[in-house]
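Can't attach files on this board, so I'm pasting raw text. These are the components:
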Amino acid sequence: MNTHLPNLKHLQYLLALNEHQHFHRAADACFVSQSTLSSAIIKLEQLLDCQLIERDHKSFVFTAHGKAVVKMAEQLIHNATDLVEFSRSQGLAGKGHIYLGCIPTIAPFLLTDVISASSQQLPDIELFIKEAPTEVLLEQLANGDIDIAILALPIDNKYSNSFKQTHLCQDPLYLVGDEILTEQVSKDGGYKNIPAESVFLLSDEHCLTEHALSACKLVEQSKINPFSATSIATLLQMTIHHQGLTFLPEMAINKGVAGHAYLRVMAMKGKPYRDIAMLERKGSLRTETFKLLATLISELFN
Amino acid sequence: MNTHLPNLKHLQYLLALNEHQHFHRAADACFVSQSTLSSAIIKLEQLLDCQLIERDHKSFVFTAHGKAVVKMAEQLIHNATDLVEFSRSQGLAGKGHIYLGCIPTIAPFLLTDVISASSQQLPDIELFIKEAPTEVLLEQLANGDIDIAILALPIDNKYSNSFKQTHLCQDPLYLVGDEILTEQVSKDGGYKNIPAESVFLLSDEHCLTEHALSACKLVEQSKINPFSATSIATLLQMTIHHQGLTFLPEMAINKGVAGHAYLRVMAMKGKPYRDIAMLERKGSLRTETFKLLATLISELFN
DNA sequence: GTTTTTGATAGAAAATTACGATGAATACTC
DNA sequence: GAGTATTCATCGTAATTTTCTATCAAAAAC
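---
Top answer:
Structure tokens for the assembled complex are below.
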């Protein structure tokens, strides 16, 4: 807090004076009295400690410096107006920018559809996507880097009770992999007869791994291959190459990722699924807007 | 006059809040009370019609949009501060930008010296030069496009009594040209024995032409070549090529423009000269600054 | 010489901004 | 678990800033 800054309204008066070259007409254009405009200019000159116009009792001219100030003021007013107009559109339901975070095992299968549906049905909303694992998303949501997060439940985090959850859909998990192995598992109803290290999983920060393990009730650590993939694409490549098994969510399969001739896709016992939800901060006032987006996403999957 | 714009001070409060992430510390940094800052933020949110921060009674976070507003506000405050600081330096004696207009028969011989001397002796002044004929300069001076004009007296213009004149120097005129002709003129004390069309002049908008004619008392129109040059360089080329005569000011000759082997330079009868003066608007408050520049220029020529 | 135009000024009114005290909700301490 | 501290919001009042109305002074127009 150092220099005193001018009142933007007074700068607008200056611009009006420059435009109309006449105190009374400029004042009219600003819907204020002539004396208001006159004293505002004087005030500006005092604040800026320099002469903006030279008067000779009947008329006036802008000084060269006055003209330079006008140019700068125009820019300033323009930027300020931008800021206001930009903000105004943000508060209303169904409008504004939404910063949306999404976990990597959802993003590639959900977001293209969401973005195109949203640009159709919610044309006044602009989405800005960030992809990050659950823990990072929760952090970003808590500190305001993103407005909403789309991820798989449950979440368990120091912030989690300051978030509001909106359930979006259930996403079933499937067993995917080598034909012989998938049939073996199907016949046995378990994993005891498959070779060691034949189950491939994503790395630990992906919650999908957790879901898959709890869904298949795989307890023998030896069946799990020590390589851990960091993306579903890599996971599938590893599975194919080593003739192994893995678990994929339906939304990925629907997008054709398991379309490789070698792969078999098989429903699992107990029809396990993951719950996909949208999170927002409880303090947010844009619930209406976010609900519109949530409804749109739900409808895409039901 | 349309949208209401925010108070820049309030935007500064917002920036302080962003920086300190704490109402009380931010308020301290702005030298206001915590309640002032708190209500200023609320006021901003009302004006912008959106949520900038989300509070939960003990703490708060900036929304994604709040962060965007902070970025824009930073830019805005920065520009506003620039405007103020830029202006502040303008009013003081010996400081600021000076927009200086000069006629083309002075500019090339005076300004390089003036600029270098000024940057030495008046380092806080920055000169911006415009070159234009007298009539244009007077117009620009009157409407504030330039702060001061340097030109040859006398001036006679609808604005001229709203200008203040500062005499800078006397600039003697010399007869320049073909050896035989210059000696002829010198011997005769007049122009009756030189060939027709052997006197070369600048075009009419250059006041030097007027000065030259009144100085030499040349009445016979037939002696004047119908070609009229638009610059001293061209004038000299024409004079040399057609073995004619012309008139040049001392400041041009001192800069070596008449250094061509063929040319003779001869003082004229009655030692005619033009008066060089600096003009400013009577309404200007920067007289002190302009006087410093005038003194500097005078000293360069005395 | 009077009227009109134009910008400045003074004093009162209105609006805005700021302050101090208090309150509510939460976290911290012992 | 009661007491203390921290933190931001709120309320009423005070100070400041902005604006208005009316009037003035200078110059131009008629």
